[in-house]
């Protein structure tokens, strides 16, 4: 796919943007509508840190492994991942389809004395820019064109860069846990997920490889009532994928 094709495609689903925009005010409340994301964030951050240290031969005990690196989080919401990336030393850009989320993200970053470049829009905004770290967590299942979206992410990746994605797997377990139980009980806002748009690890790997990248790791995000979310070998519920230039 050529860069011209990528930039001409709008991957934002306006209904999805509107849905998440309504949740913006509540985003930073760990007991609010985004509570599940708050619970997901620590294991995701741990995974990102391990991949960053492995890729750039960093010191696992260091406090700022991303110093001197540019990072972008696509579908950043109100900045739940952007702020920790900034604290790890990165120069961070956050992009989200919902302008309401960007407003909340900017206000929260200002309160936290963090300089983060927040922009309303989607991956198409990155045409011509390159980042050392490209992340997009629980986003690809909400876009209109997953192939164009991944191609856009890949196009923004620097030559020695690292791309990390996470998304639910399309399995009976994910349908039960995220939609029947999660949305049915109100733990996840109703209408958040469309199970038919979930991608299997094999499908996402194919999209990443078609975009010219090489998948170097796939790890599961599993859940147990006692321990909560954890990175594991079990990809049936949700998973993380790491890719680099081939």
Describe this structure as you would to a colleague.
With 246 residues, the protein is of the alpha/beta class. It has a single domain (3-170, 196-245), classed as Vaccinia Virus protein VP39 (Rossmann fold), CATH 3.40.50. The chain is 36% helix and 24% strand. It is built from 8 helices and 8 strands, in the order H-H-H-E-H-E-H-E-E-H-E-H-H-E-E-E. It has helices spanning 3-8, 14-21, 35-55, 82-87, 99-111, 146-155, 172-185, 201-210; strands at residues 70-74, 91-96, 117-120, 131-137, 157-168, 213-224, 228-232, 238-245. It has an 8-stranded mixed β-sheet with strand order 3-2-1-4-5-8-6-7. The radius of gyration is 17 Å and the shape is globular. Mean pLDDT is 90; it is low at 1-8.
In short, what is this structure?
By secondary structure, this protein is an alpha/beta fold.
Average pLDDT number: 90
Trace the largest sheet across and list its strands. Answer: 3-2-1-4-5-8-6-7
Tally of structural domains: 1
The major beta sheet can be summarized as: 8 strands, mixed
Q: State the fourth-level CATH superfamily.
A: Vaccinia Virus protein VP39
Structural class computed from helices and strand pairing? alpha/beta
CATH second-level architecture:
3-Layer(aba) Sandwich
- Under CATH, the topology can be stated as Rossmann fold
Tally of alpha and pi helices: 8
Terminal CA distance: 16 Å
Share of residues in strands: 15-25%
Count of strand segments = 8
* Estimated helix fraction: 25-40%
Rg of Cα set: 17 Å
Low-pLDDT stretches are 1-8
* CATH class call: Alpha Beta
Order of helices and strands: HHHEHEHEEHEHHEEE
Task: Give the CA-based shape.
Answer: globular
